[in-house]
Amino acid sequence: MYKPTANSYFSGCGGMDLGMTLAGVNVIQSIDNDPKATDCMKLNPQYFDHSILNDDITQKTVLSQADADMMIFTYPCTKYSAIADIHGCRTGDDLFLHALRHIALKQPEMYIVENVPGMKKFPVVMETISQLPDYHYNIFCPLDANLWVPQNRKRLILFGTRKPFDIKAPQQAANRPKIKDLLEVNPKYDLPPTALTRLKGGYRDLPIIVNPNDDHAVAPTCVAHYAKDKGTRVLVDPNTPHGYRAFTIREWARLQGFPDDFKFPDAVASYRLIGNAVEVNMSRWAGEQAVRYFNKRA
């Protein structure tokens, strides 16, 4: 079986690259400008033995990079997301143009874009990434991580291919875990004072409470800002003094599909890295479709 090569951009801590690797894609280069993200990838040589660059794509020339069958772009979603309306910064950005620059100069056999569904509200962005001549497109939106893990996380995934290829939407995983399956046995529980204030109604919004005893419980989206406000999402836990606690770093990672042998620093920044990552199973599905394409399987 042919293993297509891929260059990954805006790689973060490696959620997309991990899923691609597990699917049989040969990722040969990952780039991100966040040193904490690239350092995290380097903590996991059992998955990543390729070039991991802490670099700024806006300053990087295209033709100096190695050729690859595929290009993968997961540029930041902050300014495309609905929450950006609250902060008055839902403006989009020009990072998609740097993806376009790479595609135009290298013309890979396939490229994949992952982002939030809100990107569809930007017609210039969508036209740019989905109307290039000599490419055929499959677009899935919204695609929910809830198919694989108990987390509501809707995303857009676009496949651009040089030849027509029918990619079918994924189905619900038969072995999707429950919330209680993802919890640590002896968690180092945490519930900061601001979380207690929120539980008591001291903020405009009450926390989203997840009860692991409910087999149908689904966690809300694993947000990157959880590190700053753990009171927005809490777990029912009768073993803690207040009956609630925050998700641990490992539980946050499990909700995003990361295996337990994937190392994250025991630091607040890990919540941000995990929240910004692509859910691993979703990425693996996308990688499996890429492998099918390159092996011309129907």
CATH architecture of the largest domain: 3-Layer(aba) Sandwich
Oligomer state of the chains in this structure: single chain
Strand composition percent: 15-25%
Reported for the largest beta sheet, the result is: 7 strands, mixed
* CATH classification, class level of the largest domain: Alpha Beta
What is the mean pLDDT?
91
Strand order of the largest sheet: 3-2-1-4-5-7-6
Q: Quick one: how many beta strands?
A: 10
Structural class: alpha/beta
CATH evolutionary superfamily of the largest domain: Vaccinia Virus protein VP39
**Count of DSSP H/I helices:** 9
Gyration radius from CA atoms, angstroms: 19 Å
Cα-to-Cα separation, first versus last residue: 14 Å
Number of domains: 2
Helical amount: 25-40%
Q: Predict the CATH topology of the largest domain.
A: Rossmann fold
What's the layout of helices and strands?
Elements: E1 5-9, H1 15-23, E2 26-32, H2 35-42, E3 51-54, E4 70-73, H3 84-87, H4 95-106, E5 110-115, H5 123-130, E6 136-144, E7 154-161, H6 193-199, E8 208-210, E9 233-236, E10 244-245, H7 249-255, H8 269-276, H9 280-294
Parallel strand pairs: 1-2, 1-4, 2-3, 4-5, 8-9
Antiparallel strand pairs: 5-7, 6-7, 9-10
Walk me through what this model shows:
By secondary structure, the protein is of the alpha/beta class. The chain folds into 2 domains: 5-172 and 278-294, Vaccinia Virus protein VP39 (Rossmann fold, 3-Layer(aba) Sandwich); 179-273, Alpha-Beta Complex (DNA Methylase, Chain A, domain 2). The protein is 26% helix and 17% strand. The chain is built from 9 helices and 10 strands. The protein has helices at residues 15-23, 35-42, 84-87, 95-106, 123-130, 193-199, 249-255, 269-276, 280-294; strands at 5-9, 26-32, 51-54, 70-73, 110-115, 136-144, 154-161, 208-210, 233-236, 244-245. It has a 7-stranded mixed sheet, sandwiched between helices. A 3-stranded mixed sheet has the order 8-9-10, with no helix packed on it. Helix 2 (35-42) links the parallel strand 2 and strand 3. Helix 1 crosses helix 9 (280-294). Residues 83-92 have low confidence and may be disordered.
